[in-house]
């Protein structure tokens, strides 16, 4: 049997019949090329899986009680900030993981290094910059005054002197209200609580974010309340980080790409139904 097989191999490999030789050689080359292609595809697939597995995961804190920036809907965290950090992550090559934290606990958590960052409609102030670091600004906003719809005595910040003012706990608006002479400032957890206090007549005014207040009015959460025209401050939201974080440059690069690509403007239009301002 061995001799017969050897004789067959000898004839088919070295026969003068060129057509037969080409068939045998073509069969071998075809299979070799097929094997090489399979190996290449396997290598590419392995590299893709490895790349996905090796993608950097950054954990961000947020307070999902602040629509339309961050809030819960159908068991999921949604809002402008949530869409933005997803887009930034894709642009910069990291995967954002979001965890819920009460707003007044976010800065202490960043100082303790419990999170890589925080995206929570946070105003970048000089006071906060003493304890945490910030990304480049990603949102232009400002503070407004809200009063009862039938109130004619308060028309501006000067009229808040000696009044009862409600603000969200830990917000930059609390710092602003504290500067009003002879006022009594009450702080509440969440953005809706100050509005409820105003509706119930427990305070005379609320100081809050212009965009969030406009959303509350349109959604019915601020029933019986009016927002006074004009901003009493000009502010910028930024993403917070622990001091010395090496992730700031990465996130800034992603923000730049999202803004320059036009995706930022699309998200702004989606959530606020207005054109994104230049800043």
Automatic annotation (TrEMBL):
Q: Does the keyword Signal apply?
A: yes
An example Gene Ontology cellular component term from the record?
Answer: membrane
Q: Which UniProt keywords apply?
A: Signal
**Domain called Ionotropic glutamate receptor C-terminal: residue spans:** 57-274
> Which residues are in the Solute-binding protein family 3/N-terminal domain?
57-275
**Principal localisation:** other
Cross-referenced Pfam families, in alphabetical order?
A: SBP_bac_3 (PF00497)
Gene Ontology molecular function: ligand-gated monoatomic ion channel activity
Similarity comment text for this entry: Belongs to the bacterial solute-binding protein 3 family.
Q: What is this protein called?
A: Basic amino acid ABC transporter substrate-binding protein
Lineage here is:
Bacteria, Pseudomonadati, Pseudomonadota, Alphaproteobacteria, Hyphomicrobiales
